[in-house]
């Protein structure tokens, strides 16, 4: 029995200014498909999802939506900065908006004030809001763009189960392999504007790509050896021709050989040389085409370096005693006690809405709701929040970079942008509102990479970033000598950047985790501290 067809595309393409983003894409989505859309940042994944959702039109080709479709955005700067009340926002999609709030509160076990403005929500709370809308409507096709961004560990577990049990179809763009592997049964790879389809999960796809790459490299090495042999043969033939020329000259001078015989020998040598030249030229041309086709591509990667002040390592630069964090009159965290020294690596883990981001905001303002906060003189603190608030959506990449670093020269700014893969005039003059989530993240990292600093606050820094960019960020942070405090739900990332101390926020308490991440007891103790938090 054939599965019901929900979506079909026929040779769709999309061109943005001079760049051909998508070309000749023909795909289908049937009932029960759980598909991962993979590709590096900037390859057009978000564009393809928006085209399938009929939010933007392709410049060529046709998309047929045969049933209901819903798109969950990866990053919407306008929503993060909107002052619309939650109830008004939900009512744009669902008349009985209070039922969605009830669903969210029951599912994720946190209370919602319907009059609260969107810009007061954390990134995780906004994602949960959208998930509540989606799973209330239950469209036939879900298009999820980096759905685990901002979500705490418990909510991620709920989302995995919800997708596994979803009776219709889901198309997911995600760089979180561990998440995608648990929910997908097909993979679409978007590269150079084209789609290739693979069966299985993302790990299977990556293994296939690895085997293809190794086979391609072996063929390239064989072709390279063949080229060396041909070059050597050509050199020998040229030497032989030079020798024949010398022999021909001597034979023409030898009066014992008749003029007819001299002409015959010359003609025969020229014919043989011509035949060999044609053969070698043909083989060399074939070899050149093979080498060009198989030549390993030089991939441009992000280069990240974090400048830091020269402060003596282990010198205490921040001290908090009896700290309290509130929003209005709502108590989020109390009894905060900790010190930060230059070179420290600290992580904060807790459920969405527990006050982690609000704590970072207060550190930037150098003032808690109450308690003692002591910061050493002339300490420079830089904060990159999970919504990239430092990026203005209505400014270009170049304008954002220049406005955030007014003392930097244009040469320095352009060089830094090139390090974050914004190479030419076309790229740097794009408005931030037109960038993918990964590109906005790269821009934000570039913006904070020019000024020396003592304390770097990063709120979910791996959100939206592809694997190669995450690797560059990790390497950059490993060379950074200042203090680093990170909010993240990615334990692998925290472990790789050398986090030493982990503080858990739960039930308004600020609790130091007793174990290191690599300790086998870490995860069970983490769940014990922060609680389950999800109603299954």
Helix proportion of residues, in percent? 40-55%
For the biggest β-sheet, the strand order reads 6-7-8-4-9-10
- Quickly give the CATH architecture of the largest domain: 3-Layer(aba) Sandwich
Question: The CATH topology of the largest domain is what?
Answer: Rossmann fold
Global shape: globular
Give me the oligomer status: single chain
The unreliable regions are: 532-536
Describe the structure.
This protein is α/β, with parallel strands linked by helices. The chain folds into 3 domains: 5-200, P-loop containing nucleotide triphosphate hydrolases (Rossmann fold, 3-Layer(aba) Sandwich); 223-294; 316-530, Rossmann fold, CATH 3.40.50. The protein is 41% helix and 22% strand. The chain is built from 17 helices and 19 strands. The chain has helices at residues 45-52, 77-80, 86-91, 97-108, 123-137, 153-164, 177-181, 202-253, 259-294, 356-365, 397-404, 410-419, 425-428, 437-447, 467-479, 491-496, 522-530; strands at residues 5-16, 19-25, 28-30, 34-38, 60-65, 69-72, 141-145, 169-173, 186-191, 194-199, 316-327, 330-341, 345-350, 370-375, 381-384, 455-459, 483-487, 501-506, 509-512. The strands form 4 sheets. The protein has a 6-stranded mixed beta sheet, with helices on both faces. Helix 4 crosses helix 5 (123-137) and helix 8 runs antiparallel to helix 9 (259-294). The model is unreliable at 532-536 (pLDDT under 50).
